[in-house]
Amino acid sequence: MSVVVVDYGSGNLRSAARACERAARDRGLALDVRISGRAEDVRAAERIVLPGQGAFGDCKRGLAAVPGMIEALDESVIGKGRPFLGICVGMQLMAERGLEHGVHRGLGWLSGEVVAMAPADKALKIPHMGWNELVDLAPHPVLAGLAPGCHAYFVHSYVMRCKEPRHVLASCDYGGRFPAVVGRDNMVGTQFHVEKSQATGLALIGNFLQWRP
């Protein structure tokens, strides 16, 4: 099985790749993980992981600056239905637009937009950083074996606002609920860093590697 972690100048690439390798070992899967910024490698991959950290607009510009990369992602994920995992800002880029420091177009794979966090409790600090529970887990193959209340590691100031409630697969409560896992069809995304979320992250990645949407 081949997995490409997309390199476009943003994200914990090596951490994401190592987490995939560890999850594969734990499940006895033969896995070829490659970090690549080449559109042809994305087209050839059986599964695609898109990390991301920083501002939405910067990440989108970084992705657009790689020759043919957005077209390759559309072709593989939308056209061919290859399993896709977006992490943090990589997940946010699945939305139609992001409202961080202006208005920026996303990949448009999920209906919705990325907006600033606004906790009801003004004492809560932004960025939201640290371990929090996942709640409202949907019955989805990528979440198999994860129980409500399992912990994941978050670092973010913006959240996705989905137009379709069915696209929210799990939530987190930090002064109000926001999507922690989103997805449809052959794609999923996590607002938290799966590569830093220890048992929860490895379980989700392992499920993703075995997922056949």
Description:
This protein is an alpha/beta fold and 213 residues long. The protein has a single domain (2-210), classed as Rossmann fold (3-Layer(aba) Sandwich). Helix content is 27%, strand content 29%. It contains 6 helices and 13 strands. It has helices spanning 13-26, 39-44, 56-65, 69-79, 89-92, 198-210, and strands spanning 2-6, 32-36, 47-50, 84-87, 97-98, 104-105, 112-116, 128-133, 151-156, 158-162, 168-173, 177-184, 187-190. It has a 7-stranded mixed sheet. A 4-stranded mixed sheet has the order 6-5-7-10, covered by helices on one side. The chain has a two-stranded antiparallel ribbon with strand order 8-9. The protein is globular, with a radius of gyration of 16 Å. The two termini are 15 Å apart.
